[in-house]
Write a structure and sequence with these properties.
This protein has about 210 residues and is an alpha/beta fold. About 30% of the residues lie in helices and about 30% in strands. It contains six helices and 13 strands. Strand 10, helix 5 and strand 11 form a beta-alpha-beta unit. The mean pLDDT is about 95. Bound molecules: 1-O-pyrophosphono-5-O-phosphono-alpha-D-ribofuranose and uracil (URA). 1-O-pyrophosphono-5-O-phosphono-alpha-D-ribofuranose binds next to strand 4, strand 6, strand 9 and helix 4.
Length: about 210
């Protein structure tokens, strides 16, 4: 599993305003949208493309287009839905599937209540979107769903992640597939209730040798 922490001053600034308990819901939604679009730029760095010729006013130019089969974007309901617009803005030709997962707040295990994915994901690049990677249970369940359908190339886009969850995803996936996790921020740790506790400054980044 590859971890990519999108280390950028604008992203840090927006995450900080997002965390502020005094931030209003409209501003929160706008910030999520902006952050996802910034993360999507990183997350799609290896999107599969193929050559495409176009006629310009002067001559033929050989460029690039998103290859078939087009990528599949899967928001993990419910919170992942808030990230869908930001993601499809950069990948408007992508198909969209849905996975409904909820965390049992006692056992912290992921429970599936909805599943609308294509049966065959062979050769598809899959983007899983969910704002929180806490214990990692939800993300591991979602990754397993798409791997079982034949996907081999999975990119997860999350806003906040706990180190424990990242390690759980890493060990659960092993070398079964090419999985990347793109996050805006790695936080400090999980509390007793399995909630992500923010780091003090760049604690998460230090952990991963980024600063
Ligand atoms: C949250 C979040 C993730 C999950 C993270 O969803 O959106 O899906 O918890 O926790 P985990 O890494 O420990 O599995 P929640 O279950 O609260 O559902 P919701 O999006 O419907 O609120
Ligand atoms: N859901 C949240 O909203 N936060 C967490 O840290 C974990 C699950």
């Amino acid at each position: 599993m590859q971890l990519h922490v999108a280390d950028h001053p604008l992203i840090r600034h927006k995450v900080t305003v997002l965390r502020d308990k005094n931030t209003s819901s409209p501003t929160f939604r706008l910030l999520v949208d902006e952050l996802v679009t910034l993360l999507a730029y990183e997350a799609t760095r290896h999107v599969r493309v193929e050559p495409r010729e176009v006629e310009t006013p002067l001559t033929t130019a050989v460029g690039t287009r998103i290859a078939d089969p087009v990528p599949l974007i899967v928001p993990i309901l419910r919170a992942g839905l808030g990230m869908l617009d930001g993601m499809t803005r950069l990948l408007p030709s992508a198909e969209v599937g849905f996975l409904g997962l909820m965390r049992d707040e006692t056992t912290l295990e992921a429970i599936t209540y909805a599943n609308r994915l294509p049966d065959d994901l062979t050769g598809r690049q899959v983007f899983l979107i969910d704002p929180m990677l806490a214990t990692g249970g939800s993300l591991v369940a979602a990754i397993n769903y798409v791997l079982q359908r034949g996907a081999t190339d999975v990119t997860c886009v999350c806003l906040l992640a706990a180190p424990e969850g990242i390690e759980n995803v890493r060990s659960a996936i092993g070398d079964r597939a090419d999985v990347s996790v793109v996050v805006a921020c790695v936080d400090s740790h999980l509390n007793e209730q399995g909630y992500i506790v923010p780091g003090l400054g760049d604690a998460g980044d230090r952990l991963y040798g980024l600063v």
